[in-house]
Amino acid sequence: MSQLAVASDERALVNALKGGDEAAFARVVRDYSPSMVRLAGTIVGSRAVAEEVVQETWLAVLQSIHRFEARSTLKTWVFRILTNTAKTRAVRERRSTPFSTLVEDATEPTVAPDRFLGPDARYAGHWASVPERWRDLPEQSLLAGEVIDVVAHAIDNLPPAQRAVISLRDVEGWDSSEVCDALQLTEGNQRVLLHRARAKVRLAIETRLAVH
Question: Which of 96, 148, 183, 202 has the smallest number of CB atoms closer than 10 Å to its CB?
Fold first, then answer.
């Protein structure tokens, strides 16, 4: 579908929502809610609370859709409301640290220092333990259910901001501008958080494959 057709479809959908079309509302709830629950869960730390956040978000969407001016996509606008609602709920639940402070985890090393040669080595600073080349591994190893479980577990154990960014980029397939808009992050912060999240997930996979 062309960008023009997509834009036309979105305008029609927004107009239907503003006109109180119940079928249109049911459509966006069906399409967006699973991803919304996952994202809210990365912020509030509980699926039950995440589902409540999603319900609050849809209520807010219904109350404010008439003010939507299409300065962003409908999806990004809805997810921005979700993120703000989740942050407020997280503070109230005392389950999460605000995103603004979580961005500071960008100062931690992306890769463990012991993966590099020390200052006294001939090639100081070079890899001591070179990362596995996934393309050289047997396909069945990469596709095995156990490896998929490792990835899911690794993502679940990331710091909230990293978990939210990698979930939207690599699980939901969002582009960087959409993630920055929805999570209210700068492009630089988004890039660093994604890089660190991917590095940790990759390390988890390497560690798992190394035992085989």
Answer: 148
